[in-house]
Amino acid sequence: MGASPVYMQWDGDGFVPSSGIARRICNERFTVGEVYPLEEVHARSNATHAHYFAVLNQIWQSLPERFASDFPTMEKMRKTALIKTGFHTTTQHVCKTNAEAIRLAAMIRPYDEYQIVLVDGVVVSVYRATSQDHVSMDRKTFQASKEAVLTWCADLVGVDRAAADQSESA
């Protein structure tokens, strides 16, 4: 993960630090005369982030009792949804036998309560949810993951996605 962004302001001739703190950070990180790549990053709004977690919480609180042990926390539901909708990393371990794969999976499972560990023959697959923090996920990817997760979670409780959004804003 890279360093957090430094906010700059275009003055018509070049980019300058947007504050005294930004100037100090630039002096610490950069060398005068060096050329650095500049990339525009479209940060997502705090409002969309807050809306996402509010709707997720509403859905989680509406979970039928049969899902209580599967999703004891909203975070468990969110990370499972991220994995199930394709926003994850995968690590695979090939073992010599199925019995060895089962033992390995049993050893791996306790390391992270949010990961999903599956055994298929001699292969152990470990799925971990992609982080949705502001640094790891740009606005476009966050929006896609937000839509996928909310739809998956709404389907889980048997409500229409639009109804889930509406209940949060009511």
How do the helices and strands line up, and which of them pair or pack?
Elements: E1 8-10, E2 15-17, H1 20-29, H2 46-61, H3 74-84, E3 88-94, H4 98-108, E4 116-120, E5 123-129, H5 139-157, H6 161-169
Antiparallel strand pairs: 1-2, 3-5, 4-5
Helix pairs in contact: 2-5, 2-6, 3-5
Sequence stretches where pLDDT stays below 50 over 5 or more residues: none
> What proportion of the residues is helical, as a percent range?
40-55%
Reading the helices and strands in chain order gives EEHHHEHEEHH
The strand line-up of the biggest sheet is 3-5-4
N-to-C CA distance = 38 Å
Largest sheet: 3 strands, antiparallel
Strand content: 5-15%
Residue-averaged pLDDT:
89
Quantity of strands, as a count: 5
Radius of gyration: 21 Å
The best one-word shape is flat
Structural class: alpha+beta
Write up what this structure looks like.
- The model has no long low-confidence stretch (mean pLDDT 89).
- By secondary structure, the chain is of the alpha+beta class.
- Helix content is 45%, strand content 15%.
- The radius of gyration is 21 Å and the shape is flat.
- The longest helix has 19 residues, at 139-157.
- The relative contact order is 0.15.
- It has six helices and five strands, in the order ββαααβαββαα.
Short recap of the structure:
With 170 residues, the protein is α+β, with helices and mostly antiparallel strands.
What keyword list fits this structure?
single chain; 170 residues; alpha+beta; 3-stranded antiparallel beta sheet; two-stranded antiparallel ribbon; 6 helices; 5 strands; 45% helix; flat
